[in-house]
Specification:
The protein has helices at 32-103, 110-149, 154-179, 200-220, 249-253, 337-359, 403-407, 412-427, and strands at 10-14, 22-26, 188-195, 224-231, 237-244, 258-265, 273-285, 300-302, 306-310, 313-322, 328-331, 379-384, 390-393, 399-400. It is an alpha+beta fold and 428 residues long. Strand 1 (10-14) and strand 2 form a beta hairpin.
Length: 428
């Protein structure tokens, strides 16, 4: 049997006498047995590393399963305690309202009858939703038990986790809605976003806020609509109006009213910071009936309608100013001049009602013009892009480091903090 001899292998080597000249020289003898042993060692090391990676993946997966199980158990426990108690309260309230309907002559006072029937319909919806939450909690609990019997089935755990998320989301909304007791909290919301006077960057920032709120409405499933938008020439927007036709939208978003600042590094010097401002105004959007407020015609200054071409259609802009208070609103989102005028009047009434509530006034005549607080006079929030990413809520003191998540529409912690602080101040 022929033997394999060790053969020299030629490699590029550097001559010690001349560091810049390369010469062919035979390298050290290349032993095939040594190479085989080296390959075996390397293969065993690779196999050990692969097993280590598999072990790490398994550990991480087990940690993920433990975390999922913990969150599911917390959601189920919360549903078993809160949902059961809430269901008893809501069912008792529903029975009480049914008795009121039976005893009340609905034809005597149509406005009162409509209010009673709306409350009864809301009670039915809440009772049905709480029963659905209980069902989903039981479903999540059962799926978790089945997953453990099936040697920890990860797919089943994900299914149970999805059900628990629905439970937690509804209970969060239910608890928050019980804190919204203001006179207009139950109504929809009209958000008016306006860029500040610092030019291009404020207009870009206003557009960023518009997208943030639209993402929030989409995630909440309440369908906000941009009914008006004034686009600037250099990019961004000068103003925009969002209408959210969902109950309690005004209660959730009223705390967003005020000036929102974007803090970034200065375009001129690297050492200084620059603030761009956009204001947000929030007024109730009355869903069931028009705002019940009488305004004298002589107190209104109605501007002549202006027309503009938009997507092949001619739209009119109606602007109305309330002379005694100086409040001014406009509408251009409707197709006809008459419809825009009606919407403008409703927005003006909504603004006046909010001012009357804030000042404790019983009539329009008792509103003090010098005490009206405009959105740009009230600091609400700072969004810091530099030197670090941070969101500072100036009304509650809450600070959140995840700026990108907030701008992506995840503003629930900020909304909840404002509602809780408002509730605490009402108690005091």
């Amino acid at each position: 049997m022929a033997k394999l001899a060790a053969e020299p292998v030629c490699l590029w080597t550097v001559d010690s006498n001349s560091p810049f000249s390369l010469k062919w020289k035979p390298s050290r003898t290349f032993n095939l047995h040594a190479f085989s042993l080296f390959s075996t060692i390397r293969a065993s090391q690779f196999q050990f590393r692969s097993e280590s990676l598999d072990d790490k993946s398994r550990v991480f997966k087990e940690l993920g399963m433990f975390s999922l199980r913990k969150e599911i158990e917390d959601a189920v426990l919360r549903a078993e305690t809160l949902a059961s108690t809430a269901l008893e309260v809501e069912e008792a309230m529903c029975i009480k309202q049914q008795e009121m309907v039976r005893q009340y002559n609905l034809w005597d006072d149509l406005a009162k009858s409509n209010e009673v029937l709306v409350k009864l319909a809301d009670s039915y919806k809440i009772v049905a939703a709480l029963k659905d939450v209980q069902y989903k909690a039981e479903e999540a609990k059962l799926i978790t038990q089945l997953a453990e019997m099936d040697a920890i089935n990860y797919g089943l755990f994900k299914q149970a986790y999805t059900a628990s998320l629905d439970v937690s989301k509804f209970l969060d909304k239910y608890e928050m809605s019980k804190l919204l007791r203001g006179p207009y909290d139950v109504e929809g919301a009209c958000m008016i976003i306006k860029a500040g006077h610092s030019g291009f960057y404020s207009e870009v920032w206003a557009d960023q806020l518009l997208r943030m709120y639209m993402k929030w409405t989409k995630k909440q499933g309440i369908g906000g609509r941009v009914v008006e938008k004034c686009i600037s020439k250099n990019g961004g927007i000068k103003s925009a109006i969002i209408e959210i036709e969902s109950r309690y939208a005004h209660g959730y978003l009223a705390g967003e009213r005020g000036a929102h600042y974007m803090i970034s590094s200065s375009r001129n010097t690297s050492a200084s910071l620059e603030a761009s401002m956009a204001s947000v105004d929030v007024i109730p959007l009355f869903l069931e009936t028009a705002p019940d407020l009488l305004i004298d015609d002589e107190d209104l200054l109605v501007s002549l309608p202006s027309y503009k071409e938009e997507q092949g259609q001619t739209r009119s802009t109606v602007s109305i100013q309330h002379i005694p208070t100086g409040l001014k609103v406009q509408s251009s989102g409707e197709r006809s001049h008459f419809a825009n005028k009606i919407k403008t009047l409703n927005r003006l009434k909504a603004k006046l009602l909010v001012v009357m509530r804030d000042q404790g006034s019983s009539t329009i005549r008792s509103i003090k013009k010098n005490l009206i607080v405009y959105p740009w006079h009230q600091q609400t929030r700072r969004y810091m892009f530099h030197p670090c990413e941070l969101v500072q809520d100036l009304k509650t003191g809450l600070q959140l480091p995840d700026l990108k998540s907030i701008l992506d529409g995840n503003i629930e912690p900020l909304i909840a903090a404002i509602i809780n602080s408002r509730q605490a101040s009402d108690v005091v």
